Amino acid sequence: MLLERAELPPLDAVSHLCGLQAQEPQEPFAGLWSRLRGFQPDALSDLLTGRQVVRTHLMRRTVHLVTAADVLAWRARHNAMLRQRVLGVYRRELAGVDLDELAAAGREVLADGEPRSMAQLARAVADRWPEPGTRPLGEMLVAGVLPMVQLPPRRVWRQKAGVRNALVSSWVGREIDPLPTEDGSDPVGQELVRRYLAAYGPAATADVRAWSGLAGLPGAVAALRGELVTFRDERGRELLDLPDAPRPDPETPAPVRFLPAFDNAILGYDDRTRIIDDTDRGLSVAGARVVLVDGRVAATWDVETEAGTAAGTGSGKGARESKDTVVVTPLRAFSRSERAEVAEEGEQLAVFLSDGESARVRVGREV
Q1: For the whole model, what pTM was predicted?
Q2: Tell me, what's the pLDDT at 313?
Q3: Staple partner for 358: which of 233, 259, 289, 322, CB 3.0–4.6 Å?
């Protein structure tokens, strides 16, 4: 949805994109603004407070906004990966902890229906496991062994709040779907691959693994072979795609687009050279917001207040008082027409971020 803004409701867009990475709470609003025609941020806020979209740890153990339907369908397939990724950080601290017992203890604490911060939840079980410390216990509880969501008002447009966690079952109204009986075909994995390719294909199996954090989904890919089409990229890697997926002509013009931090258009691939130069790859994991020019990362952007300090996307008093400026820092030299297009799109972004109170943009020179 970056070649042309789509006429889609935000719920359908979140579903199509397989979620939006959202450890920075306000970033998904800019991501949808760049993809949807006439996007109104309150529409996404309403989906969050209405429990149709949730904020949860899922792909790659990072926080994503996903539909409630997708977290119910996909969470069980991610369980083992989520546990292992937490253990990858805290294996020594959690060596003596039975993770199933820890999950049961966490559920007991949350049985009263009250949301809790990670620290509160960890302290509530720390008397049984005093050695690891609250941070390892808390990380495993909220990002590993329990399907949890982060509740509003965090994530709502222009709202700031600490993280309060609740079980998916208490917030959405039912338990996550159990994995089907294992026969090697991995039906949930198959649906993940289909959905990923619908949004991001053609892609290699390594790209699917990089996006999901799951170990390649070999059974799912093998089961799907008969319904997929294959290609070879410039390096000879096999790329998979759905047969009826759009594959625009290489000469199709790609308009300027402003992407938020950690957008999956970049992080959703193992081979990111299709969209960002290797020399700039570090920007994608450092949380830089980027500007696409002709379909490739060509600049970074941020928001500065009149005093010159950075402001978060869509947040802060400065935006409401029309003192914010979208500042673009090119990574290469722009032609005159490129600079004009970047400035025009940046003005529209400034209008969006300030609720129509500002259209300030400044396009700098190549760094």
Answers
A1: 0.91
A2: 54
A3: 322
